[in-house]
Amino acid sequence: MCGARRGRRFVLTPAVSAPRATEAVIRVEALTKRYGDLVAVDGISLAVERGEIFGILGPNGAGKTTTLEMIEGLRRPDGGGVVVDGLPVWPDPNDVKRRIGVQLQATALFDYQRLHEIIYIFGSCYGIHRGRDACVALLERVGLADKAEAFVDELSGGQAQRLSIALALVNDPVVTFLDEPTTGLDPRARRALWDVIGEINRDGTTVVLTTHYMEEAERLCDRVAVMDRGRIMALDVPRALITRLGAEATVRFDLSDRVPAADLCLLDGATDCRAVENGYEVVADDAQRTVVSLLELARTRGLRVAHLDIKGADLEDVFLSMTGRKLSDDEDEANASALKKRRRFGFGGGR
Predict the structure, then answer these.
(1) Selecting from 3.30.420, 2.60.120, 2.30.30, 3.30.70, what CATH number does the domain 247-312 have?
(2) Cβ contacts of residue 302 below 8 Å, gap of 6+?
């Protein structure tokens, strides 16, 4: 059993799925990082299979970026070990760095360099000297072939992120790491970048990405590690995590008068309930039965139900069940932080 009811509340037991019989391109064992008294990454272990898109999902401060940086060889761990493509990352990460591609949260580039020139310069750092046509071909992989002669400062936010992914591919990496690649982008640009990431993976590159967007993790990732406060709370296929929650949907509504949230936990089919800013949310294993029970409760108490909405269970509900808070609460803060980083350090910051 992966979960248990405590009273009327369903609690998802932290669990890691049994590894499938495939080759692991990344193995992490008891990885730990401390900053004084703060344990940023608390002894995590995981394996990434060759050819998959693996996501690390969690809020700001969960330890996602620190974990990636230790795997990439950019930040030395205080404990544990990492092996990438058969090579130990530490104590000497140089051999591993030649085999991976890294897209950071912010990238500083010269404003007045043409895109094909930037591709050439980054490739030359790996001893790869592409002609112009080969540089344009790499830009084409991320949908920027028509911008080959453009300067960096002429790019939109979504185009700039696609360029940063192209730069992570200049050495034909075995694994490409993407650290919150779509944070700060509008929904249209975000979805366009999802298509780019999916195409890169279909071309044979293993992708490891961090995100705090549930939809992104569900749409892109073969498997997801849910991370909070430096620990992996659960790791599995997104749909398996949702199924293990035991919930079909979240029923959202408002009532004409306030009632104790605990009363709503007594609705038929309810597994969890809570008062929220604009009404109530009830997590249900049978949404239809719960709505019928809700309407009956409202009738007997002389209440009116308004703004009734039913949303299928997703990774937001999984995270809420494990931590008691919503992952989406961090989205506005994360978007503002990303825009601030890009204004200061990122594209357009080289003047």
Answers:
(1) 3.30.70
(2) none
CATH class assigned to 24-242:
alpha beta
- pLDDT for residue 53 is more than 90: yes
- Mark out the alpha helices in the chain (DSSP H runs): 64-72, 94-97, 115-124, 132-141, 157-167, 187-202, 214-220, 238-245, 261-264, 287-301, 315-323, 331-345
Closest CA to 155 of 114, 122, 200, 196: 114
- DSSP annotation of 49 reads E
Q: Quick one: pLDDT band at residue 317, thresholds 50, 70, 90? A: confident
pLDDT per residue as tens digits for the range 84-110: 999 999 999 999 999 999 998 877 888
- The answer on pLDDT for 239 being more than 90 is no
With 0-12 / 13-18 / 19 or more C-beta atoms within 10 angstroms meaning exposed / middle / buried, residue 8 is middle
> From CA 144, how far away is CA 155, in angstroms rounded?
10
Q: Which residues contact 324 (CB under 8 A, 6 or more apart)?
A: none
Query: What mean pLDDT do residues 271-286 have?
Result: 89
To which residue do tokens 């609705």 refer? 267
Q: Tell me the chain's radius of gyration from C-alpha atoms.
A: 23
Strand (E) or helix (H) holding 40:
strand 38-49
191: which 2 tokens?
A: 């979805």
Cβ(318)–Cβ(238) below 8 Å? no
pLDDT, position 315:
86
For the segment 285-295, what is each residue's pLDDT rounded down to a tens digit? 899 999 999 99
Would you kindly state where each structural domain of the chain is located, as residue ranges?
24-242, 247-312
At 124, is the secondary structure helix, strand, or coil?
helix
